[in-house]
Amino acid sequence: MEIEKDLEKLIEEIGGEDFQKKVQVCYQCGTCVGGCPVAWVNENFNPRKIMLALSRGEIDEIINNDLLWFCCYCHTCLERCPQKIPVSEIIVKLKNIAAKVRGIPEGYVNELKMIAKTGRISSISSATERRREQLNLPKLVQTSVEKDIKRILKQTGTNLFLEKEIKK
Amino acid sequence: MKRTRATKEESNLEKENKDYLLFKGCLIPSSLPYMEVAARRALEILEIKITETDNFSCCPDPIGIKAISELTWLSMGARNLCIAQEIGKDILTLCNGCYETLKETSHALSEDSELLEKVNKILLPLNRKYEGNTIVKHIAEVLYLDIGTNQITNMIKKPLYGLKVAAFYGCHLVRPSDVMNFDDPEEPKSLDELIVALGADSLPRMRKMFCCGAPLLGVNMDLSLNIAKENLDNIKTSGVDCIVTLCPFCQTQFDRNQKVVERRFNKEYNLPVFYYPELLCLALGVDPYQLGFDLHIVKVDQVLNKIK
């Protein structure tokens, strides 16, 4: 199995034209930018411009810009959009495409490695066990969830992100 | 913005359903065990029964894993929901991230039968099949709606009079609101009322519902710390004694990373950060020595002395 990199096929997977139609009602008011915590600290990140590019069908330009990964997924834009465009959810779908075509940020590669190995995003060290004991917390039993998780990663093709050096 | 939400009156009808399946998550049991201690003690004193299982995986993380593959995110979430379905209990989460992932997965798969079928195909080799409609609650929701602020006020032994608090809800407790459907996404009141129920004051501030910045720690440290600084500045200006969170990511961002922000921007905040159940335990009369306050990075002594 290979990672699907064909942009048209990837857009088809997430709903094709219907997906792009969702943003065609955007009238570029910038409410999404006004409420965006990332735009507040970095003026280069601009969800309004992402919606504009998407409505023009310029998906390759969006996914080739690393700024896409700066969305912190707080959903303020989704709540405030006067046209009820689910901006943050649309950005997630664009990230899914960017992941396949260009790879994922290194921090996410590490997170995925941990999930594939243990089924969880943080490991239990002996220091943790000691602290838990001091606090009278029950011992953490590590059941073998990772077998199930590895299967899910394989079935959804996400394991391929780990097999290849696919990172930025 | 009119939305239908569960009201206190409605929830009182369900008062008998006080037995939940605890979803501990990843970060709390491994890195922030003091949060788990407080949650367990508070639930025990308030007589909320919990059942436990070791079979849960990561929820998984609604930022990173969902950004990589929405289908992987849904499938791992559905696997966890299957476990709750087998045990036959509603889920109680301690973390906003777990809350959003599990509640949104349950919602998405209950609304979209094609998607449910697709996910169940992925779960087939695991011998699991998700049926839909698992109820997922955050501990704040259980405290606010199942127990209620009046009952909490009636049960406290050491009111936190004079303590000024900054309520930090965290995004995913309330957004996306059409899915979370718990409190208002712009002007929520549950945590403020839960704080007031303990005798403390919850003070207003600028950009109260701003993201904490933690989701960007793995992507861009500068951005993440700049967002944390914006929050810490607004919180400090509001004149509070401490911050109260409901999520281990917000907790990490303000407790552990407060020192990082202070060094980087040459600032001094000195704002202790509590997980709400910690304050609740103090008000319920739990001995502070049992709560592991020494594990906090920002020392909490000034607050403990104030409420003595």
Give an account of the 3D structure.
The complex is a heterodimer of chains A (168) and B (308). Chain A has 168 residues and is mainly alpha-helical. Chain A has two domains: 7-102, Fumarate Reductase Iron-sulfur Protein, Chain B, domain 2 (Orthogonal Bundle), CATH 1.10.1060; 106-163, no CATH class. Chain A is built from twelve helices and no strands. Chain A has helices spanning 7-13, 16-21, 31-35, 37-41, 47-55, 59-63, 76-80, 87-102, 106-118, 126-134, 146-155, 160-163. In chain A, helix 9 crosses helix 11. Chain A is globular and about 55 Å long. Chain A starts with 6 loop residues before the first helix and ends in a 5-residue tail after the last helix. The model of chain A has no long low-confidence stretch (mean pLDDT 91). Chain B has 308 residues and is α/β, with parallel strands linked by helices. Chain B folds into two domains: 8-138, Up-down Bundle (Glutathione S-transferase Yfyf (Class Pi), Chain A, domain 2), CATH 1.20.1050; 149-306, Rossmann fold (3-Layer(aba) Sandwich). Chain B has 17 helices and eight strands. In chain B, the strands form two sheets. A four-stranded parallel beta sheet of chain B has the order 2-1-3-4. A four-stranded parallel beta sheet of chain B has the order 6-5-7-8. The termini of chain B are far apart.
